[in-house]
Amino acid sequence: MLTDIEIAKQAKMKKIYEIAEKIGLSQDDIEPYGHYKAKISQSVYEKTKDNKDGKLILVTAINPTPAGEGKTTISVGLAQAMGVLNKNCILALREPSLGPVFGIKGGAAGGGYSQVVPMEDINLHFTGDMHAITAANNLLCALVDNHVHQGNDLNIDVRRILIKRVLDMNDRALRETVVGLGGKINGFPRQDSFMITVASEIMAILCLSSDLSDLKEKIGNILVAYKIDGSPVYAKDLNAQGAMTALLKDAINPNLVQTLENTPCLMHGGPFANIAHGCNSVRATKLALKLGDYVITEAGFGADLGAEKFMNIKCRKAGISPDCVVIVATVRALKYNGGVKRNDLGEENVDALAKGSVNLLKHIENIKSFGVPVVVALNHFATDTEKEIEFIENLCKENGVECSFADIFLKGGKGGTDLAEKVISTIENKEKDFKFTYELDLGIKEKIEKIAKNIYGASKVNFADKALKAIDEIEKMGFGNLPVCMAKTQYSLSDDPAKLGKPENFEVTVRDISPSLGAGFIVALLGNIMTMPGLPKVPAANNIDIDNNGEITGLF
Length: 556
What we know:
Strand 14 and strand 15 (264-267) form a beta hairpin. The protein is α/β, with parallel strands linked by helices. The model has no long low-confidence stretch (mean pLDDT 94). Strands 1, 2, 3, 4, 5, 6, 14, 15, 16, 17, 18 and 19 form a 12-stranded mixed β-sheet that branches. A 4-stranded mixed β-sheet has the order 20-22-23-21. Helix content is 35%, strand content 20%.
């Protein structure tokens, strides 16, 4: 069996202008970055504004497990299957972060014969978007510290500087730092910390901005600190928005690439879903809807995180809603949720499968609560047995949803035609009645409780004193009407990663609240969630190498 990178290297890629032509774009509409990737020009938005929108398909999943689910692989395979059925389909995905690429996960552009290419470029520097976001964020941090050093005319309270430096790498040593050491010439010493780039507010802003002017306005509204008297300091008070936006002038434009079967893919933005809102950019999704009859996008981690934020944050900001949601599950992952140890997942165990399937049922219930039709994609693994597959198919049928056994890892688009046909049929025969989990005029506490109780299934929400103080402060500033971005573990419906399946009678704790006023939402931190991941004992980076001819190996 070939590795993902070996499969990707055998791909017969088309030149990027040929991919652009497939979706009605000329060579003048794109800005090539080599032969196989490009930025889409701003002029395309005006050119396509009157086009009718296609149908939007969101791919989400059960809670992730070490057994693997393959949400991106299913997204790519489904798009390729649409191509097999001669449908005009476009993918709209997030860009991978270098943190997971060199950490636990490895590459993040799909897998097997359902990948986005050029795989090495996408997983490494791509078109430089991540670096531009990192630079813009850290410029703001430098301007804040420089302002304090140069006399602090704004009376910034150095104990209440909110903006954090970022790096697109897992590095636990940067979780807590001290800056400004070495005497007066090096600034004012203070405790600080780093976040990973994809968790930054700049990333969220880029993904939620409609155009360059909107991006600049949102950047100006970033709450960077508080003054000694408790009043807010925004990025615009430091006159930072112009230079920061200049750094992002190319990064705001979506990237065009292709799948192994030459399906067009707009890959843009990459916020984490356990920390940030976990969706690709509004610009990429909305443009894809103008260019394709079917648009497939995904939201990070399980439906309790990425899909919830897609519905309650992205759909609100963009004025869109999905026509169908695909929930990805595997027999292996559901058995893991049923208590089977990882080394034993290859053995048939219908009883454990039944026990763990409550996780899938909860996610189905949650998606239905948004008024959107559901299809379950059962991602095929070689160890799946007929009895186990039949159990899941019957379970889905009993709950009124279509289920498709997808063999797209080994077969590409041809292995996903049944899934594509069921998705199309669901869109054509089941009407959506889209609704949000909460209304914006509710208080911050009430919105958090709606999500925790209705989506997670929590019996109670506890608020730490620090969180209550932050809520009071934010609401007094007049920002209580913003949506809430929940930051919690991806491994459980609860805030405890050890509680698998569908936990019952559990409580969650909100330990802090952080305002992302530029992005336009409030972040609620639940449990022991970290905004700067660390590397594992054996990082994926240890397996990545390059030879004298520039050939990369070990990248997933």
